């Protein structure tokens, strides 16, 4: 106030929230998001039914899918959705764990804030705790394995799918996931790299989940270009083209003046001869299958059919690249550039009817660097959930093959970290010690939620687990056996997870919790005038 005149720094209609109420508001919003997915954690987790504005239904308990589908408005809550997306991109699995952990870290922080511990002290304590937790993961908890050990890879894939709706068929799906990733794994610069995008996943409802199969080749969601083409070609030699088999229009505007009817005839005959030459050139190279990214003229299709050549047109560029990796062929721009060395090879190319659609199967490739999985299931919702489960399993197997380090699941890793961090907290000193203890306590929310979702007493389970991890007979692999709610050795129960899932979940949960804690002022512009809070017109400090 200056001589009784109010000074308005912010635009009229701007909402501003400062200090403790701003922090409390953000924490409440983030915790609400964490509580939404908390009940989906673990093999006994419940599913959510999400209905969008169009009335389409999604039934899932995949953390990231739930948070993507739910339209979150609050800016702090949106940050937790980002955590789930990052976890999904990096590891495939552990999305719910990361979000629940972030929510629990904020819940524990709230208690410390009430004791007048400053937010920067809490965040510093969290940073120290997460560094120590990562060190413990790498030196004491993680186990290095041989990536050629197929049984451990299958266990990891089955664990990732344990919480999904495909529980009954997970052993078959786990084997498919492991075989698929092993096929596409390659060594680059002395490191093993698995690009999961090289696995093509096609889903068709009909049949059961157990009919899902791995194809040592590529499935194209296209039928043959002409009904008189052979429906099956054995010992296929495949030409991969990314230009159209048509007569090109000129780049510049041009006109053809025809003075008498004979010229029309000769013009059409010349066009026909051009098409004939195209097909003859393909036949001369020994190709009996043509896959084209662009269109193929109807006349060319007719001549290809006469020569007994199988042709597919309008194929996606990504599918063409996968086909090149699977068959060993090279993608060429036009027929003039095509040589017999560029042709890919496969034992069989044939057209199948799957569900309501006809599809082209390129199978029996000698050494495919790209493969396909055909998902089947009773309804569309089932096939979608199988696809989400397989995505998690493929990412998990690829991270185990790339890193070669795993750790026990079933809450064993979290409880072990909690016990060890509590002991370590005393060496930190200062007020940060309180934050490290809060971090350790927050980690216990994972076994707590697992027990709760399994219908067991969470307090008894935690006490049981703590005693199993502490003392002279401590077992770092002791987690919850959800068959009876007691502690058991997770290695014996084959509940194994990649180390990357755990360390990424710890990192991203801590980062988002510290970011939310450091905000003490929310300035939200008026809706319509300056965008949504936290959006282009709103600011958070």
Give a nutshell description of this structure:
The protein is of the alpha+beta class.
Can you tell me the CATH class of the largest domain?
Mainly Alpha
The major sheet is characterized as: 7 strands, mixed
CATH second-level architecture of the largest domain: Orthogonal Bundle
Q: Strand percentage, roughly?
A: 15-25%
Mean pLDDT: 85
- Domain count: the total is 3
Specify the helix fraction band: 40-55%
Number of strands: 22
Question: How far is it from the N-terminal to the C-terminal residue, by CA?
Answer: 24 Å
Shape: elongated
- The name CATH uses for the topology of the largest domain is GROEL, domain 1
Cα-based radius of gyration, to the nearest Å: 30 Å
Q: In terms of per-residue confidence, which ranges show pLDDT below 50 for 5 or more consecutive residues?
A: 529-538
CATH superfamily of the largest domain: GroEL-like equatorial domain
Q: Compute the number of helices.
A: 16
Q: Would you tell me the structural class of the helices and strands?
A: alpha+beta
Describe this structure as you would to a colleague:
The chain is of the alpha+beta class and 541 residues long. It folds into three domains: 15-144 and 408-540, GroEL-like equatorial domain (GROEL, domain 1, Orthogonal Bundle); 147-216 and 369-403, TCP-1-like chaperonin intermediate domain (GROEL, domain 2), CATH 3.30.260.10; 220-367, GroEL. It is 46% helix and 18% strand. It is built from 16 helices and 22 strands. Strands 9, 10, 11, 12, 13, 14 and 15 form a seven-stranded mixed beta sheet that branches. Helix 1 crosses helix 3 (75-90), helix 3 packs across helix 4 and helix 5 (119-141) packs across helix 12. The longest helix has 24 residues, at 261-284. The chain starts with 14 loop residues before the first strand and ends with a strand. Residues 529-538 have low confidence and may be disordered.
């Amino acid at each position: 106030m200056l001589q009784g005149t109010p000074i308005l720094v912010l635009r009229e209609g701007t909402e501003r929230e400062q200090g403790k109420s701003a922090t409390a508001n953000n924490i409440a919003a983030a915790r609400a998001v964490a509580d939404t997915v908390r009940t989906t954690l673990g093999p006994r987790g419940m599913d959510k039914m999400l209905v969008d504005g169009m009335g389409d239904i999604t039934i899932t308990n995949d953390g990231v899918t739930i948070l993507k589908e739910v339209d979150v408005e609050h800016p702090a809550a949106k940050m937790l959705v980002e955590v789930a997306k990052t976890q999904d991109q990096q590891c495939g699995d552990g999305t719910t764990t990361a979000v629940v952990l972030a929510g629990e870290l904020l819940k524990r922080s709230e208690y410390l804030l009430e004791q007048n511990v400053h937010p920067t002290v809490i965040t510093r304590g969290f940073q120290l705790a997460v560094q120590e937790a990562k060190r413990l993961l790498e030196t004491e908890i993680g186990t290095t394995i041989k990536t050629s050990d197929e049984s451990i890879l299958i266990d990891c894939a089955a664990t990732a799918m344990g919480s999904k709706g495909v529980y009954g068929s997970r052993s078959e799906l786990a084997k498919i996931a492991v075989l698929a990733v092993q096929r596409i794994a390659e060594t680059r610069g002395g490191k093993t790299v698995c690009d999961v995008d090289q696995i093509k996943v096609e889903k068709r409802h009909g049949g059961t989940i157990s009919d899902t199969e791995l194809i040592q080749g590529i499935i194209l969601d296209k039928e043959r270009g002409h009904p008189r083409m052979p429906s099956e070609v054995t010992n296929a030699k495949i030409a991969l083209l990314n230009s159209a088999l048509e007569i090109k229009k000129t780049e510049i505007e041009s006109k053809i003046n025809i003075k008498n009817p004979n010229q029309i005839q000769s013009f059409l005959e010349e066009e026909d001869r051009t098409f004939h030459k195209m097909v003859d050139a393909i036949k001369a190279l020994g190709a009996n299958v043509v896959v084209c990214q662009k269109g193929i003229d109807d006349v060319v299709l007719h001549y290809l059919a006469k020569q007994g050549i199988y042709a597919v047109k309008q194929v996606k560029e990504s599918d063409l690249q996968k086909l090149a990796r699977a068959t060993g062929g090279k993608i060429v721009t036009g027929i003039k550039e095509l040589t017999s060395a560029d042709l890919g090879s496969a034992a069989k190319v044939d057209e199948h009817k799957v569900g309501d659609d006809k599809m082209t199967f390129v199978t029996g490739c000698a050494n495919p660097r790209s493969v396909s999985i055909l998902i089947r299931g009773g309804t569309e919702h089932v096939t979608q959930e199988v696809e989400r489960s397989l995505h998690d399993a493929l990412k998990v197997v690829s991270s185990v093959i790339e890193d070669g380090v795993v750790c026990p699941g079933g809450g064993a890793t979290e409880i072990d970290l909690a016990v060890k961090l509590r002991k370590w907290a005393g060496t930190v000193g200062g007020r940060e010690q309180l934050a490290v203890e809060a971090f350790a306590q927050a980690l216990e929310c994972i076994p707590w939620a697992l027990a709760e979702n399994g219908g067991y007493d969470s307090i008894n389970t935690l006490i049981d687990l703590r005693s199993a991890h502490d003392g002279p007979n401590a077992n770092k692999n002791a987690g919850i056996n959800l068959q009876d709610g007691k502690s058991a050795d997770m290695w014996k129960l084959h509940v194994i997870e990649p180390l990357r899932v755990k360390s990424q979940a710890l990192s991203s949960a801590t980062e988002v919790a510290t970011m939310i804690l450091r905000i003490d002022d929310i300035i939200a512009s008026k809706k319509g005038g300056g965008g949504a809070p936290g959006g282009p017109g709103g600011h958070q400090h």
